[in-house]
Amino acid sequence: MLQGKKILLGVTGSIAAYKMTILTRLLVKAGADVKIVMTPAAKDFVTPLSLSTLSRNHVLTGLTENDSWANHVMLGRWADIMLIAPLSCNSLAKMANGICDNLLMAVYLSATCPVVVAPAMDEDMWHHPSTADNLQKIRSYGNAVIPVENGELASGLVGEGRMAEPESIVSWLTDFFLRKNELAGKKVLITAGPTYEPLDPVRFIGNHSSGKMGAAIAAEMKNRGAEVTVVAGPVSISFSEGIKLIRVGSASEMFDACMAVFPETDIAVMSAAVADYTPVQMASQKIKKTDGAFTVTLTKTKDILKHLGQTKRNGQFLVGFALETNNEKEYALQKLQTKNADMIVLNSLNDAGAGFGHDTNKITIFDRQGNAFPFETKSKREVAIDIVNTIIQQLHANIH
To answer: Considering 57, 90, 207, 389, which one is annotated as catalytic?
Structure first.
């Protein structure tokens, strides 16, 4: 699975850096093309010559060496994945805070490929609150973290913080590239963001949805090999390259776009916060302030999830979202049944860090049989992985 894969290995200043000779040999033996960037401190633990010999590529260590500064952007574009191993506590802090004082950090900050790290540090450093905060920050940026192991450390102590063994890292990379093909050939429709229901040319009825959750799900679907179409309401966020984007404003426009795309779709994820009501009539001119009360007559919008559930054919998988403030489980299960969905993702505004206006989310997923799968508060990038993993598990269960 690693045959022909382009892996950019970043080595930082940690005693575990000596194991990069083993890791490089394993990656090359598996057929990967390995290029290596080292921090100045890493050279105290393993020589560039050793890694250059094993990788069969020149190892870069300095900002101005061999036009490295000019080429740092291209390295991140060349790679299929960037692996930083070992990741020291110092380099972790730099990644979390955007510090760019060496070539490796410059490459990391400009990388367009997926990034995964394998931390290595002493147990007390690993358990320090600042380390946990920095790990959470880089996860929220979309970086993956290979879990540390429990074992003998450089200090002589035994505990957590030991870098995953080279064989385990190779196994993680192999699984990563296998996952990239999990949804190959599948067409996915995702809605994201709010809808704006116009009152007049200036004002509208809307909500605080940012579209970040939908964008994260779209990116993860794309990473798994799917052909992704996003119908997005008025949002300012960007979407991953290679995703077909259809921009809409109102609930009516989103309904029309979804109904047009859905017939050719294998998986539909309705994560947008669509307005339930819209003004009966939009004023042609700006409504002026008066001394009296202002009354707006509203009518129900078309229920996108319900219509998709009614037209769903065998083999299509439909996912709805439920944002609730009370009786959360009851309403989520009711929505699952009445909308003929295959899965409901529940958010509760009673959970800290969930819902609109956060970079995190806390969800519970309900499947067709009503089974609940609760998850802890995570970054929306990690939540997207949980959602996509659950969809794939449900698809496999339906087949068998």
So the answer is: 207
